[in-house]
């Protein structure tokens, strides 16, 4: 089968289309023929080598989520799964391929009315948005900043915060046009990537920050937390924050701030699946919006990554085998 691996960490030219043997589903796994493959921000972070210290190595087969049909099951898996249309989390590897395996507990049947592309635009990221807001103990009326809002996690976080009754939903993004799209999804104030702008009525402080970006400017955002504010770091698309950012937190000691990292890995699989299933149903009804930026053939994965690195993607790029 055709698959896309990281030949060398760094820019997208290091991605390579290769031929690999079709994986056999191990006990507890299913084999899927994808109709849609999600290109996540995490894939770019892995490709750049940002997570090399977390055990990712060159030769890595990228991709963590697919939607498609189950064609075979491993030992111990109910055979009635065969032929069903599903979304699946493949782990942090294995998605950019013509065939993919996933543990059966990480598979969810797709509701009618949800396309494969929509499913991979929402499947992994929507639950991150949900649980990050929950971990932040967000309550109605509070001011929320979604930093890096134009990706799939941010797009869902904006919608969830708005419909849960946030006092203000502030976002950072890189252009007016992207800001207008985020307003359409529920943002009330649009800041630039540095956190400037937003108009005269923009809130000066935030009760909750959901941060997809990290990077060198993270301490500036910490400074703008209100007393008792909660900052939840969910991503590092802008790289790691400076090593001494904890000092900024300590300097604001008397504001009783909380800084948390949040990883979906810490949420029990059944809890993730329950939220994901509800979000899929909402998306199928049109109550939760998914944004598919572009659909490209699998062998153009490097183009997809170039688009992400150039900052041209709003939502998710989807690959099709
Ligand atoms: N916590 C978890 O469990 C979990 C699960 C999955 C993924 N993740 C993490 O979440 C991140 C990916 O999320 P995603 O797919 O929603 O993000 P994404 O689409 O890659 O990026 C979101 C937005 O961030 C902005 N951005 C990109 N580079 C930036 C930079 N250098 N500085 C400032 N802003 C920048 C861009 O918007 P603008 O151009 O409009 O500013 C971009 O659209 C990764 O770090 C991944 O590791 C976490």
From TrEMBL:
UniProt cross-references to SUPFAM superfamilies, sorted A to Z: GroES-like (SSF50129), NAD(P)-binding Rossmann-fold domains (SSF51735)
InterPro entries xref list: ADH-like_N, ER, GroES-like_sf, NAD(P)-bd_dom_sf, Zinc-ADH_QOR/CCCR
Pfam families with a match to the protein in the record: ADH_N, ADH_zinc_N_2
Organism domain of life: Bacteria
Keyword NADP listed: yes
Keyword annotations of the record: NADP
Record domain Enoyl reductase (ER): where: 10-319
Name of protein: Zinc-binding dehydrogenase
Taxonomy of the source species: Bacteria, Bacillati, Actinomycetota, Actinomycetes, Kitasatosporales
């Amino acid at each position: 089968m055709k698959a896309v691996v990281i030949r060398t960490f760094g820019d997208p030219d290091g991605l390579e289309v290769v031929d690999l043997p079709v994986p056999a589903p191990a006990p507890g796994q299913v084999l899927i023929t994808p109709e849609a493959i999600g290109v996540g921000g995490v894939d770019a972070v892995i490709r750049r080598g940002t997570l090399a210290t977390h055990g990712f190595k060159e030769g890595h087969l990228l991709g963590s989520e697919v939607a498609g049909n189950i064609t075979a099951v491993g030992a111990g898996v109910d055979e009635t799964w065969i032929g069903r249309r599903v979304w699946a989390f493949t782990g942090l590897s294995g998605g950019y391929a013509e065939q993919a395996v996933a543990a059966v507990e990480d598979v969810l049947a797709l509701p009618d009315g949800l396309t494969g592309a929509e499913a991979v635009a929402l499947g992994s990221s929507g639950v991150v948005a949900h649980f990050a807001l929950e971990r932040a103990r967000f309550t109605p009326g509070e001011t929320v900043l979604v930093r890096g809002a134009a990706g799939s996690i941010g797009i869902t976080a904006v919608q969830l915060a708005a419909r849960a009754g946030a006092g203000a939903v502030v976002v950072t993004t890189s252009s007016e046009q992207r800001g207008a799209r985020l307003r359409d999804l529920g943002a009330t104030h649009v800041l630039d990537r540095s956190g400037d702008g937003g108009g005269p009525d923009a809130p000066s402080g935030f009760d909750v920050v959901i941060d997809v970006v990290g990077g060198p400017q993270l301490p500036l955002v910490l400074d703008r937390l209100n007393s008792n504010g909660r900052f939840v770091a969910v991503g590092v698309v802008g790289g790691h924050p400076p090593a001494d950012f904890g000092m900024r937190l300590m300097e604001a000691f008397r504001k009783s701030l909380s800084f948390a990292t949040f990883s979906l890995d810490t949420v029990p699989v059944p809890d993730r699946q329950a939220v994901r299933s509800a979000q899929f149903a909402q998306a199928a009804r049109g109550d939760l919006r998914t944004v598919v930026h572009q659909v490209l053939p699998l062998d153009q994965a490097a183009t997809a990554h170039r688009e992400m690195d150039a900052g041209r993607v709003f939502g998710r790029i989807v690959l099709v085998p």
